[in-house]
Amino acid sequence: MALVKEIMGSSSHVLDRSSPFITSSSKILGLNKNLLFYPTNGKRFCVSCVEKGDSQNKKVGRTSPISAISDKIGRIVPEKPVKFKVRAVVTVKNKNKEDFKETIVKQLDAFTDKIGRNVVLELVSSDTDPRTGTPKKSKEAVLQDWSKKYNVKAERVNYTAEFMVDSNFGRPGAILVTNKHQKEFFMESIIVEGFACGPVHFPCDSWVQSKKDHPGKRVFFSNQPYLPSETPEGLKALREKELGDLRGDGKGIRKLSDRIYDYDVYNDLGNPDKGIEFVRPTLGGSKRPFPRRCRTGRRPTDTDMHAESRVEKPLPVYVPRDEQFEESKQNTFSASRLKAVLHNLLPSLMASISSNNHNFKGFGHIDSLYSEGLLLKLGLHDDLLQKLPLPYVVSRIQESSQGNLLKYDTPKIISKDKFAWLRDDEFARQALAGINPVSIEKLEVFPPVGNLDHKIFGPQESALKEEHIAGNLNGMTLQQALKENKLFIIDYHDIYLPFLDRINALDGRKAYATRTIFFLTSVGTLKPIAIELSLPANGPDSQSKRVVTPPVDATSNWMWQLAKAHVCSNDAGVHQLANHWLRTHASMEPFILSAHRQLSAMHPIYKLLEPHMRYTLVINGIARQTLISADGVIESCFTPGRYCMEISASAYKTWRFDLEGLPADLIRRGMAVQDPTKPHGLRLLIEDYPYAADGLLIWDAIENWVRTYVERYYTESSTICNDKELQAWYTESINVGHADLRHESWWPKLATPEDLTSILTTLIWLASAQHAALNFGQYPYGGYVPNRPPLMRRLIPDEKDPEYVSFLADPQKYFFASISSLLQSTKYMAVVDMLSTHSGDEEYIGERSQPSTWSGDPEMVHAFYRFSAEIGRIEKEIEQRNSNPKLKNRCGAGVLPYELLAPSSEPGVTCRGVPNSVSI
């Protein structure tokens, strides 16, 4: 010890027997680089954690106080390593409400925990034992006081476990967990304290299954990121094994407790065992290309070996266990779904009693949904409600709706101006700032030209002529208007026309393939100047196309309103089936599946993507079960009916990942041109285009954050190319997840840091801002059905039609007989209300769980806080824009502010907020 005093200056700087980190039986015979020291600055550190530490420390040039120790110490070797004690603090998340069975099992686990059926932890070092070549492991330690704390009502409960390790153990890199209880539990995090390198964090956020269900040990890695080539020796085998477990073997029926990620086609939308009317084609494959979904492995149906048998609600559809909703999210979702059930139950009862209730009787009839609620509107009294076998359901809904049982909230579209939806300027404004602002394009040629095969679909010439629009060009010629970028179009001709014969043959479904021409005014607003309505040509002399222009009298006014309703119905279908479901939900699923299968939890790119994958697989599974399935909500409420998902698959044929980023999409649609003098390198052709203007702010923030992150770990292209996990993730996402388009030449390469930045920015954009812009305005804009009728039941009559007389006699009645019925409307309203609702546990862009410890790289933690601050700045800028009277598409009398890309939100239907992921 005299030598130590001479070198260190004081014996107080060396841990002796009195230290809590050394056992009483330990005998210090000398010093070794694996011992713990207190340097002269008073900070405790472990030389093994500094010298062996990890290659990441060396790579990024982090420094440690190793110079405080003389080189002479390294020559003093102990006879055996010193043992010391470390402690793990395990945070377990409780359920707020448990059913009777769960309570009984929990009590049983508390009892059996005392007799050895407990939770066991084992520390794994980043180092290997030089004698055996295997990872160094601690002895097993039991989670303490489970039996004493099992009944604690707090949401989070901390348990401890103590490990005895040698001084040459090295840095802990993983923890193995064995659950010998009967019941699974949710492990949120583990913090290991007592190592000289400081607390080591293990983010878990996972259900730990009982050993009887899953005999293997669960592995959780520390928050220290490692590229595959830099994985410490002690963790390499665990890294590979964990990925292998997540991939599974592609066989068997998945149990709800499984954590296996695999692919399948959409062969589960129909139910042929129920009858021919429930048969739906498989999506995915050469005939109907489509992204792949999460495999469940269910058995085939009895009548079709290629169709997967269905699991009908309320039974859950399989998704990997950790992908399922957490309790607060599930409660919000369940309450909304129960509310939707009741909203639909009562009009269904009344519709069955009296056929007079099938259609809305007038605009006041619709208004009563918000002012009186369904109970009063339908004349249902309390005694009838009490007779319904739903007392528990009703009480839950009453609690969640503050007593306004079955009363719809007033949609924002009519909250500021009840008649705004009737105006042409509002109809056009919503093309730039509504729920589907991604369909409008610059008109390149006039008349517009379709790309369908004329041999199959007949002549493709448009019926639009110059005389239809000449009077609405503010004195310009057609060529001037085109040259000066004054004409824009929403063109649904090609996506709808191939399906119209089949749609219009359905009972109560009628549709056109529409084109709408807009003129850009001098104040930056749009006005619609012509609508083309097309039907399939049934012969050379067939009058299959007609053009409707702005009204000049009462009759043409109602014709114009009906034409706009058909455009909105087309728009609602394309929005839901192509832009919303396909481009955000379905196209993201393969990238998420592949990330879990190919990227280790310790991979830095996995850590970056993790918050943007939350809940997507489960919400997609629920959608396949109830929304996009045969006779589901989408088929019931949208004009294409049983052909809805075939339209979605048709749209996938022209989907391109390289054009899904915001700048590329704006350029593709002709809504922007490259201009290096502008803040985002783009010049918008319509300066007051709220979706694009706000979106570019968020796009740039995401891109800058991702670039900073990527450049931290990939300083050169060779590192990208040699990262086997990264390359496997991207390759599998394309070749398996998007197998039907895998040979397309437009797929971006992944060879440089810039490539990776672009790919990741696009994915994060789609999961967060793009989905938010397309989703959270569904009820605020669509909850007033006349504004955006999702379903049309009649074509527009002309003078030769028998219905023309009834149209002239009562045009309002004809209008309500054309749009969704009472039952269809209330069902749609209830569902989009649910889909527009933020849950209380939502994580918004710029936020993430455990913001200070999600990564063990402090530089990236600080970079994330800078990203978060930038998102806060963007929110303030959006607020300022919404108060700027010069921006007439977001500010003015009765004009809704554009807040769909405002990053934050309160829970509920707010028409704002950008969650990190596709979570609803």
Automatic annotation (TrEMBL):
One of the protein's GO biological processes: oxylipin biosynthetic process
InterPro entries per the UniProt record, alphabetical: LipOase, LipOase_C, LipOase_C_sf, LipOase_CS, LipOase_Fe_BS, LipOase_plant, Lipoxy_PLAT/LH2, Lipoxygenase_dom_3
Entry's Gene Ontology molecular function annotations: metal ion binding; oxidoreductase activity, acting on single donors with incorporation of molecular oxygen, incorporation of two atoms of oxygen
Keywords, ordered alphabetically: Dioxygenase, Fatty acid biosynthesis, Fatty acid metabolism, Iron, Lipid biosynthesis, Lipid metabolism, Metal-binding, Oxidoreductase, Oxylipin biosynthesis
Segments forming domain Lipoxygenase: 225-920
Job description of the protein: Plant lipoxygenase may be involved in a number of diverse aspects of plant physiology including growth and development, pest resistance, and senescence or responses to wounding.
Name of the protein in its database record: Lipoxygenase
Lineage: Eukaryota, Viridiplantae, Streptophyta, Embryophyta, Tracheophyta
